[in-house]
Amino acid sequence: MPTPRTRPAALFLATALAALGLTATTTTPAVAATVPVGAGSYSDTRPPGTSGPTTNTGTPVTPKLTPAAQGKPVPTNDWWSSLAFQRYGDNPWSTPMYGHPLTYQATAAGLDIGYPTTPAIVGEGRQYEYAHKRDLTLGLTGLNSPDTKADAWSDWTVTPYWSDGARTLRTTIGHGSPFVYAKGSGGDARITTASAPTVFADQGNVLGITVAGHHYALFAPTGTDWTVSGSTLTAGLGGKDYFSLAVLPSPDALTTYRKYAYSFVTGSKVAWSSTGGTVRATYTVTTQPQEGTQTGTLQALYRHQWLNTTDALTPYTYVSPRGTMKVRESATFTTSQRAAAVLPGLPKSSGVDPARLRGYLAEAANAPDPFSGATDTYWTGKALGRLAQLVPLADQIGETATRDKLLGLLKGRLQDWFTAGGANEFSYDRAWKTLTGYPASYGSDTELNDHHFHYSYYVYAAAIVAQYDPAWAADSAWGGMVKTLVRDAANPSRTDTAFPFLRGFDVYAGHSWASGHQGFAAGNNQESSSESTNLSAGLVLWGSATGDTALRDLGVYLLTTESEAIAQYWFDADQQVFPSSFGHDTAGMVWGSGAAYATWWTANPEEIHGINVLPVTGGSLHLGGEKAAIRRNIAEMERENGGPAVEWRDILWEFQSLADPGAAKAKWDAGHAAYTPEAGESKAHTYHWIGTLDALGAPDATVTGDIPTSAVFTKGTVRTYAAHNHGSTARTVTFSDGAKLTVPARSTATGSGTGSDPGPSTGDTFQLRTGGTLTTATGAAAGSDTIASAGGANHDGTPHQPLVYEARGVSGTLKAGGATAFRLQVDAGTTVGLGQQARVSYDLTGDGTFERTETYHYFATDPVTGWEEYNQARGLKSATGALGDLKGGTVRLEVWHAIGNGTGKLQTGTDRSVLVIPYA
Q1: Which candidate in 395, 425, 447, 531 is catalytic?
Q2: Using one digit for the tens of pLDDT, what is the confidence trace for 724-745?
Q3: Catalytic residue at 527?
Q4: Which of 45, 142, 265, 334 is the most buried (most CB within 10 A)?
Q5: Catalytic (active site) residue 531
Q6: Cα 909-915-919 angle, rounded to 5 deg
Q7: Which of 129, 164, 399, 527 is labelled catalytic?
Q8: Lowest mean pLDDT among 301-315, 513-527, 681-695, 786-800
Q9: Which residue of the set 164, 425, 450, 737 is catalytic?
Q10: Where are the alpha helices (DSSP H) in 86-133?
Q11: pLDDT at position 13 over 90
Q12: Is the pLDDT of residue 22 over 50?
């Protein structure tokens, strides 16, 4: 068994991070009161001898808030939390905060602002960072504030506050905002630059300057004027209280940015929905004009956002640690994604021998100590998760006695933790408005770290119990305590006065943050993204089991959103995020400033790669959406490890099975006899997982069901549809390719789809034929066409020697809300660095003029021989014109290499390579 994780035994990070002392003082708490919640309870005072939030030297701290913010739940674990959580006694302002594209740090004189555009590779090549470096400071003349406090916040913006008695300053900053909005009193607007600025535009109250190669615009009220004196720039406010600045993508963008300089962002909010296998999220900022009537703004979208929006974007871009950010000229934008699949467990299959599984289950259920001596929240959670994974498997093979024994173990330990006054309990901190489990671990008490990691296991285990015992999950029984943990870690309410909205999850960044205080030079961080998604999957299952559709849909939104962020920022799925000088294909940790091939406790490659996989559950299927990234990940792990996995072999076998089930099965067959399971795993679960995927095939993320608890698996050309119905009556699940599956009440079912072809209907579905034809005919022989090399040049967005396929004389009525879809099987062979790109064009009347053209983001193939699927889920890169009814029109598909230096193959003549047009 691997050595238990201990933080911070070794950081294996090279950035000059702040000290990580975990020393805690113990003070005598007040007399505790028990707060009943259904059949359970928590304490309103932490247990004797324990600590709450402290500085790094152990001094207790309370939130650093203005009077206007006092009493409001503080969103710890955010990109800006050091404004409110003073981790270091000698820094009452903040540590560096990474908003992207801008970076910030509060000081006595105001707000330091930077725009890092050049990555540094540090720590013997283990980390890349776009570290905060001050370009300028925004403040007021004479400002010398003894501290900075959080004055207001919204979903992805925050307002820091400075006051020295004579002067006050408030700024509003946020993710994706190129602007900093300032309101001040008692002094003139003052900008001090790190080096002498170059003025490229002087329009009186609007000044364009360049500092360290970065272009900024300064905006004072109309009628005022900026004065430049060396590196100090000042402007009187003319009786007003506002000014702003913006980082410009180029000097010629000044006119556009000036238009929105006085439209101050006052709040930000995301709204989400999950319907029919599609997750939509709308991101909106509210604004208030300080002069004029303009209420629009500019927002920079992260890669995971612009890949999944069809909203119009400007040509403006920014550099960030998450790859290119693209600018939208609007106060709102919407993303749309296929929902990530979740199942309580993998379904029954021919790949699992019931007798063998029965033996493994008995071994786990009858262990002398099923909880392996765990006492704290994290390791207890791991044990709960391990046992919960086995319940559906026992039920699947009719082992009801084992199933019920496992359920009894889960209930007993959950109820123990859900009852105040014993050796373990949850305690509420009134000042920080958080619920902490004691015994705590890894700074979950003193730093408010990792609540979403720890509590994910409790919610997941409770969801499995609820599936089999709904009465246990009632609010009047133990469900109320489960929801209380959810309120702490992933509260969907913005009006709850006891807990903050989505404590750990950053809706704009697309993922969670682990540190409660964010007190590092590199910003906040998250190591185990998979333990974060474990909470999201737990919410899907809990909401489905209890009929709480709001929590279920919250889980779907969180899981689907973070799945894309993980693919892009931890696994660099498209190979467009990590700097070319960073010699790794995966990151163990993501930081505000970049990412690191590291963990908090070891440099062992197996654990660097495995920490973003565990725990492996029915909520892990989303990882199978990026099979090329999995293959690169496993290959790198084996290179760095000097061979296949040993310590966490089960986790990494299961991970590999999401892309190459046969290869994973071969490793299991060769190595299962003598290994120790990872602490959250068991031989029963690993055997079932690998055997099932070997039989059914890897998850197919291109098809979704119309309920969250559904999934599709593909082996060769055969699809298997699976779904779990938590309801009390049978229901039919419809999948996005038209397949249907009837699922009995409170059961998991699998099937091939009732009378349906595993592809779209032929009326709107065109197969590719060698020779350049698109046809609705079927039954042709499989073939392939060669995609010409890009010749080492970049042809992203512009066809270069494309393969062209056309259907002429096409008529049809445009479906309301319809959109183009395609599935193209492509293969790069063993060539590295190829990217295939598709363009679909519609000539509505066949007159030779294409009224609508859609260019999709290219697909980066892996250098492993075998077909991979490129589909419209890569997202639109650009689109022109509008669709209308087809009347004898022409539909054209073009496929070419956007990047790379080698040829590839495109499959033809099969129902696996098709174009689907939105017409009836």
Answers
A1: 531
A2: 999 999 999 999 989 999 999 9
A3: yes
A4: 265
A5: yes
A6: 130
A7: 527
A8: 786-800
A9: 450
A10: none
A11: no
A12: no
